[in-house]
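I'll show one example:
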Amino acid sequence: MLDLVKFIKGLEREFLEGNKELYDSDRLEFLRKRDEFVSERLGSHRRNGEGE
């Protein structure tokens, strides 16, 4: 479980690095897009069998 938390936190950091302007200008939009990004990446991670 801790590995999953670390993986998700890493994805959130990765998203922030590429979207700092959005973070500063529209926090709600940033959070919405971050959630989509993490969900997509987590889904592909699990489909590839990496989450087991």
